[in-house]
Design a protein that fits this description.
There is one protein chain. 50% of the residues lie in helices and 6% in strands. With 429 residues, it is mainly alpha-helical. The chain binds carboxymethyl coenzyme *A.
Length: 429
């Protein structure tokens, strides 16, 4: 779609650049021709003003606090749908009919087992390994097991790889957890829904019947929905960049997991809960607020702030409700961590520093308390995020592969190192 062109003056030379319009949200200035015309690159580390691709999957309006998947608001999807319905929507672009959903559930369910030999990968790790380290390795290893779905030029293989990935991540994540705590792996059970099956693989032991608590399984499912996709965030961009070279999808997802691990991204849920535990009681909050505001102190309030949301993260609102439901069900309503969290949120939302910088709670602020109450150790939090985000990564990867404009992602640089110089023999240095 064309719009009025943009004129940029570079070194006295006027350059005309195409403006492309999105369906909603900001238009973009297409700078693709600027190097050819001016012999200059553009510079935007951190991509604060730069769109890296076209996409039809997810839209965020950060100022308004809006998140849409294929046009549907996250609140409606979380309220009315289940996670696999959202997966279908992200992958195929439309909500499924009842028959399509049944077929999709069946196909995902029947890919949940992993090759038996995968279990050997787990036992190669130390028991105290961080489960994210284990996930980076084991998901990367999938491409060594499923050769029949690594031909990225074949649409059928791409969809099989996508379903495999969505289906096997809960199994692998649960195995990482079981290995961590020294319990036997639990195989998937096909008569359970996605979230219930995952809870069972995590918390069942062979010596007892495991009964899934419907409140917890609904909460788990909602947590998955809330993390399913978030347009071109760091890990998704990593998956796209890795995939742009033609790498197979399993390897690309492993790259995404590595990126997600960092505390500025998916690692924030773990960091947020650790922070709440460190604060410990409401009377210590002012001290931490002061540290967060102190320019000379690197401390940040984890679970606050977002590159795109300059308003309440819409996912955080739903998450807060889920937190209350779960703590109510488990009889943890008076959990001191929840008290600290609610008081911290109240203070931060009325503090001039946070108001001025538009720092609102993000999804990670509440997800940690909920996951902890459900029985997950903090080290598993980012693994759960990776599990849920896999569908977003794989949908974005598919979109990229199908995009006729797709080329290898290859940023340029502003070189500030030594200019040409001749190498001197070691004896003469
Ligand atoms: N506590 C205190 N000050 C903050 C915080 C915070 N959590 N976040 C940002 N600021 C300040 C920051 O110091 C800076 O101040 P100044 O302009 O005076 O230098 C200003 O706000 C802008 O921050 P920025 O680092 O330039 O913003 P960014 O867009 O690069 O960073 C962020 C976004 C999410 C990395 C950052 O807000 C942060 O580190 N938050 C804590 C970690 C966190 O909760 N991350 C989860 C993000 S949501 C889930 C996900 O995407 O994985």
């Amino acid at each position: 779609m064309h719009h009025k062109n943009a004129l940029v003056e570079v070194d006295g030379q006027s350059v005309e650049l195409k403006v492309r319009a999105g369906s909603v949200g900001p238009n973009v200035v297409d700078i693709g021709s600027i190097y050819r015309q001016t012999k200059m690159f553009t510079y935007d580390p951190g991509f604060t003003s730069t769109a890296s691709c076209e996409s039809k999957i997810t839209f965020i309006d950060g100022d308004e606090g809006v998140l849409l998947h294929r046009g549907y608001p996250i609140e409606q999807l979380a309220e009315h749908g289940d996670f696999l319905e959202v997966c279908y929507l992200l992958l195929y672009g439309e909500l499924p009919t009842a028959a399509q959903k049944k077929d999709f559930d069946y196909r995902v369910t029947h890919h949940t087992m992993v090759h038996e030999q995968m279990s050997r990968f787990f036992t190669g790790f130390r028991r105290d390994a961080h489960p994210m380290a284990v996930m980076c390795g084991c998901v990367g290893a999938l491409s060594a097991f499923y050769h029949d779905s690594t031909d990225i030029t074949d649409p059928h293989q791409r969809i099989v790889a996508s379903l495999r990935m969505i289906a096997k991540m809960p199994t692998l994540a649960a195995m990482a957890y079981k290995y961590h705590i020294g319990q036997p792996f639990v195989y998937p059970k096909n008569d359970l829904d996605y979230a219930s099956n995952f809870l069972r693989m995590c918390f069942a032991v062979p010596c007892e019947e495991y009964v899934v608590n419907p409140v917890l399984s609904r909460a788990m499912d909602r947590i998955f929905i809330l993390h399913a996709d978030h347009e071109q965030n760091a890990s998704t961009s990593t998956v796209r960049l890795a995939g742009s070279s033609g790498a197979n999808p399993f390897a690309c997802i492993a790259a995404g997991i590595a990126c997600l691990w960092g505390p500025a991204h998916g690692g924030a849920n773990e960091a947020a809960l650790n922070m709440l535990q460190e604060i410990g009681s409401a009377d210590r909050i002012p001290e931490y607020i002061a540290r967060a505001k102190d320019k000379n102190d690197p401390f940040r309030l984890m679970g606050f702030g977002h590159r795109v949301y300059k308003n309440y993260d819409p996912r955080a609102k739903i998450m807060q409700k889920t937190t209350h439901e779960v703590l109510g069900e488990l009889g943890h309503k008076d959990d001191p961590l929840l008290q600290v969290a609610m008081e911290l949120e109240r203070i931060a939302l009325t503090d001039e520093y946070f108001i001025e910088k538009k720092l609102y709670p993000n999804i990670d602020f509440y997800s940690g308390i909920t996951l902890k109450a459900m029985g997950f150790p903090t080290t598993m939090f980012t693994v759960l995020f990776a599990l849920a985000r896999t569908v977003g990564w794989i949908a974005q990867w598919n979109e990229m592969i199908e995009d006729p404009e797709q080329r290898i992602g290859r940023p340029r640089q502003l070189y500030i190192g030594e200019p040409h110089r001749d190498c001197v023999r070691m004896t003469e240095r």
